[in-house]
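Example (one chain per record):
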Amino acid sequence: MKTLGLTLGKFAPLHKGHQFMFDTALQEVDELIVVIYETKVMTVPLHIRASWIRKLYPTVRVIEAWDGPDGYSNDREHEIREEQYILGLLKGEQVTHFYSSEFYGEHMSIALGAVDRRVDEDRKLVPISATMIRCDPYKYREFISDIVYRDLITKVVFVGAMSTGKSTITEALARRYQTTFASEYGRDYWTEHQVDRRIGLAAFDEIAVGHLEREEQALLEANRYLFVDTNAITTYMFALDYHGQAPELLTRIALENAQRYDLFFLCDDDIPYDDTWDRSGDQKRHVFHKQIIADLKERRIPYITLRGSLEDRIGIVEEVLARFKPYDNYFGES
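Predicted structure:
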């Protein structure tokens, strides 16, 4: 007889305690179903939370319960609603084992006619809860998969022309928020590989990939925020400036940038120009600044302009971050 396991929850967020339960179930049953509920306890959408499970456990059948009962309760009316909802999802399919680490394991297993499998109910083997992680993901980093953790970090990118203060504010904010930052990979690459202040077209693909790798490394060590100096869109603009075209991979990565970052800040060209050997002059900076704005508008990417002193700019960013909720409507409508 085929054994079929079932577990359910919000997985907001998914953590190593949940994974221990999944791993236990997969050792004991032939197939596992995970029902994941919509919830208001965190702003990460249901389909993203479901994608964590699908990526980590490709053999698990994940059911997104968009209209499932809200919350948990030992009130019998609520229990009946949940039992009827789950039985409706199963459409007559017989579950043999119900997995949980909560009190509701009793009534659900009875309703399903399944074995009541409680896994680490006292949280001794994996001492963590989703509530603890929501309060401070960085503190409990060891209990969160990389796939999950990267989606809990607010990714903030600073774009703009050369000598507009991107590097300075990126590093200053990382210190202020006690987190990591991703420096501009392209500048390091250019310094090492340029010949007569030029690099080849194919090099821009290498820059785009190298910058993403640098970001990913910093992202997995970030504390709530990751501050990023420049992105593939700026690299794309430099490719057009150097060669009149951009290579295919860079073009694709630049297109994906609108979804990669939570917030875009444009550093204005209102600060004094730092005329170093690797730059092309203040007039070029002003032109490039206009071109970057035009490109952001063409891509329909909302951005916030930073002007004035470093402290003025930091103040604007702090005000935005204080109001910003990841995956939420920035303008306050839920």
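Caption: Strands lie at 4-9, 31-37, 61-65, 97-100, 115-118, 154-159, 181-182, 225-229, 263-267, 304-306.
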